[in-house]
Write a structure and sequence with these properties.
two-stranded antiparallel sheet
Length: 341
């Protein structure tokens, strides 16, 4: 009989940051890339999430790109780490200020697709099979600026171009309802999931769900994750927390709503999730230099503790509460469980 599942943990190097925000400059010194990578194993993490230009600059030619990827892969191998996914960073380039795949400019749309194909090549060279698409600027500031019907089709066309570029790559959509755009064309997991089945190979298209993005859409992350798990399309997660419907805060997992975090872990644990537990969390702005990775360690510790709590729940008792429609009793049982009683 197999024992309990063992989770693998990942985060991206951008989670160790200087603390700059739209209203103020950096408050901590930048940490060198190599030093960030060395921190992973010390913190108990197994793998790294990358944007394409975290690995190599976006403007390098093919030969220099592969040379740079080989150097980074050597660093990862030396640290005993793997790359979970590559994500093309399409929201910062001058050619994508008005959207990437949905730009009104054909040349800019082609740039976005070409860069995404290059990101796939980087993924292959570094040894991972997943490409994550955060559709950051696939929307508009005013609805009349683009044809929304056409834009949806262009997103599907872009995904198909990537699927055609590589017969093994998997595409993971990461949805967010707003920020940086006022209106996103695929604001929720459900929106993107409806497109999955219109792509050239639905078996290779799934989702990465971030807690804060679901919350910003007014949804509970556990419901979004359950929906994707039923479709067998939940291939990665970004766990964090969010204090209300405001800007994307990326707070430490479980730090705002412990019960919401409990339900997230409950769904992942009992729903058969077999992907990595990815974190996307920011240190609080005033965090000292010496403590700038504690938010990562704390998020991982919260997840592991909640796994213990979930595994300690009496499933038969929960089922009795359900069958008896004793929802007050079930709620008190959950609350007492979270309080360690």
């Amino acid at each position: 009989m197999a024992g309990p599942k063992t989770y693998r943990f990942t985060f991206g190097p951008w989670n160790i940051s200087t603390g700059a925000d739209p209203f103020g400059p950096p408050v901590r010194d930048e940490v060198a890339f190599a030093d960030k990578i060395k921190a992973y194993k010390k913190l108990g993490f197994d793998g790294v999430q990358f944007h394409d230009d975290d690995v190599v600059p976006a403007d390098l030619g093919p030969g220099e790109t592969m040379k740079g990827v080989a150097a980074v892969k050597k660093i990862l191998d030396g640290e005993g780490l793997f790359c979970e996914f590559i994500a093309p960073r399409l929201w910062e380039h001058p050619k994508t200020i008005d959207g990437a795949y949905t730009s009104n400019n054909p040349a800019e749309r082609q740039y976005a697709i070409d860069r995404s194909k290059r990101a796939i090549d980087i993924a292959n060279a570094i040894g991972c099979r997943d490409l994550v698409l955060w559709l950051a600027r696939e929307g508009s500031y005013i609805r009349e600026a683009k044809c929304a019907v056409t834009a949806v089709g262009r997103i599907v066309d872009a995904v198909n171009a990537m699927l055609e570029h590589d017969p093994k790559i998997r595409i993971l959509g990461e949805m967010k309802p707003n920020e940086p755009m006022d209106q996103a064309y695929c604001p929720t997991v459900g929106h993107f999931m409806s497109l999955v089945y219109r792509t050239a190979d639905p078996s290779r298209v799934g989702v990465l769900i971030e807690s804060a993005h679901s919350i910003l859409a007014g949804l509970d992350p556990s419901d979004d994750m359950a929906f994707a798990l039923w479709h067998k399309k939940l291939w990665s997660v970004h766990l964090n927390d969010q204090n209300g419907l405001k800007y994307d805060q990326d707070k430490t997992f479980g730090s705002v709503d412990l019960r919401r975090a409990f339900n997230t872990v409950w769904v992942l644990e009992r729903g058969g999730f077999d992907g990595c537990i990815g974190l996307d969390v920011k240190a609080m702005r005033t965090t000292k230099q010496a403590d700038q990775t504690r938010h990562l360690a704390n998020s991982k510790a919260m997840f592991e503790r909640l796994v213990e709590v979930v595994r300690g729940v009496d499933a038969a008792k929960v089922e009795r509460f359900r069958m008896e429609r004793d929802h007050e009793g079930l709620e008190m049982y959950v609350l007492q469980t979270l309080m360690g009683k």
